[in-house]
Amino acid sequence: MILSNRIRTLLLAAAVLATASPVSALIEPDPAAAVVGQLVARILEQNHYLHHPLDAKASKGLLANSLEIYDYNRMFFNKADIEEFQNRYANTLADRVKEGDVSQAYEIFERFLKRLEERTALVAQLTKSSMTFEADESLIIDRHEAPWAANDKEMRELWRLRVKYEMLQ
């Protein structure tokens, strides 16, 4: 069976993660991160050409940008993850960074790694199964504006269609 480069890359990432220690042990907060966070916050507030304050509005934007970086096509995080991040950080992220608390960045990244492991296992399972190509199905390739998958069933279906699409490619 021929796999696309994207699936091979995802499976390679899974192999690396599988041979490593548990996800939580992969990343350790650097003691200097607090100072760097405070410095970046100060530079953004004082030296950015727009001089926007780092407030609740900026927090929402910072969170949205972080989530977009990790999951642009909304294929890793689910709706519950996003709601949790929004409830915990949407209004306070900028204040936390100004205070030197960058733990939220590590928490979001750890969740991403966890979801990556889960999705990689799912891709491995899906590529081992036999797929038929007779059904009339469709997939939105650019899911940037699509809603987050509401549950595991929806996420599995998204990945099933994506793997099927990649196999056809």
Helices and strands in order:
Layout: H1 5-19, H2 23-26, H3 33-47, H4 56-70, H5 79-89, H6 93-98, H7 103-128, H8 152-168
Report on this model:
It contains 8 helices and no strands. The radius of gyration is 19 Å and the shape is elongated. The protein has 169 residues and is mostly helical.
Could you provide a short overview of the structure?
This protein starts with a helix and ends with a helix. It has 169 residues and is an all-alpha fold. Helix content is 64%, strand content 0%.
Descriptive labels:
mainly alpha
Structural class computed from helices and strand pairing: mainly alpha
Helix content: 55-70%
Q: Indicate the proportion of strand residues.
A: under 5%
Catalogue the unreliable spans: 11-25
Shape: elongated
Give the count of helical stretches. 8
What's the main sheet like? none
**Which value, in Å, is the CA radius of gyration?**
19 Å
- How would you state the average pLDDT, rounded? 82
